[in-house]
Every structure is written in C-alpha cells, then in structure tokens.
Design brief:
Blueprint lengths: L11 E7 L2 H14 L6 E7 L5 H12 L6 E7 L6 H9 L2 E6 L4 H8 L8 H8 L19 H6 L3 H11 L3
Parallel strand pairs: 1-2, 1-3, 3-4
Helix pairs in contact: 1-7, 4-5
C-alpha cells in the first residue's frame, strides 16, 4: 500500500481581535460566510473583553507578542477616540485598525439595514438587539438579518474591508 504524501504548506495567518463579545460573534458569522478553507490562510478570531481603545490595543499586543501572525486586525467601536500614543503603538506593531461607524458595531449594523443609528452606543444596542434572532454574543443570531446578500450589498467601509480580508486567498 502506498504511503500518503503529507504536504506541509505554509499558510498565511491572521488574527482579528474584536473589542467585545458582540464583535467576536459578528466576526464568527462573517467568517462562516466568507472564509474558504482552501484559501491558504488561517483566520483566528479573539475578543478583548471591551474597554477603551487603549485597553483593546494593549490586549492585542499581549495576545500577539509570542505568536506570529502575518496580519493583525482590530475591530473596535468609534465612540471613544484613539489617542496618539495608542495609534503610534498600533502602527509600530503593524496592527490594522478597523472602526465600527457610527459609534459602535450596532450603529454600523443598523445602517447596513438602512435604519438610522441613534445618538449613543447603548441606544443603538437597544434598537438592534431585539431584531436579532437570539443573544448578540452568538454568531447564529446575526444570520437572518445579515445574510450574504445583505453583507455583499453594503457599502459600509468596515464591512467591505472585513469581507475582503475574509475572502482573500493567499
């Protein structure tokens, strides 16, 4: 019987760190739609547990300092400005910052649905979460509202960039 050849093909590795559990669940949903197992890349998703941009960037530094990734992305809300020191750290570490606009993930997703984002992040959450099919920390909760045709159609820049990141083959 012939032995099977095992190919040791180098994969491109990337990590996308979401600010919180809602970002991680939404990213898992997008990954399930756009990431092709034969793309030549390994996508890792993580979340920083919330907090300020400083906290998210600090968490990402800690998570990636002993693991090699070809690309490191951070998805965070835009309701709190990123200070110059944190922007410098992100740039030095080659992190690619993606911000949910307006305000937060929920504000951005409301606009994907052609609904008006409200004035605060909490108000956006209160408006979007009841429309989801379940808990906002579960990827499957986003499926009915944010199926592939809806995500393909949107021009929200952060969603467009995430689509391209997850679809790209290496």
């Amino acid at each position: 019987m012939a032995k099977k050849k095992i190919r040791n093909q180098q994969q491109t590795t990337l990590i996308i760190v979401g600010e919180g559990e809602h970002e991680e669940a939404f990213l898992q949903h997008m990954k399930s739609i756009y990431d092709n197992r034969l793309s030549g890349k390994k996508v890792t998703l993580d979340f920083a547990g919330g907090g300020s941009p400083h906290d998210v960037i600090k968490y990402t530094v800690k998570q990636t300092q002993h693991r090699a990734f070809d690309y490191i992305y951070i998805l965070m809300d835009s309701d709190v400005a990123i200070d110059a020191k944190d922007t410098k750290t992100a740039k030095e570490k080659n992190f690619i910052l993606l911000q949910s606009e307006p305000l937060c993930l929920e504000g951005m997703l409301l606009e994907v649905l052609k609904q008006t984002a409200l004035l605060t992040s909490q108000a956006c959450k209160n408006k979007l979460h009841p429309q989801l099919s379940g808990d906002p920390t579960e990827a499957c909760s986003y499926s009915p509202l944010f199926d592939k045709p809806v995500l393909d159609k949107t021009t929200k820049m952060t969603i467009v960039m995430l689509r391209e990141i997850l679809k790209k083959s290496y």
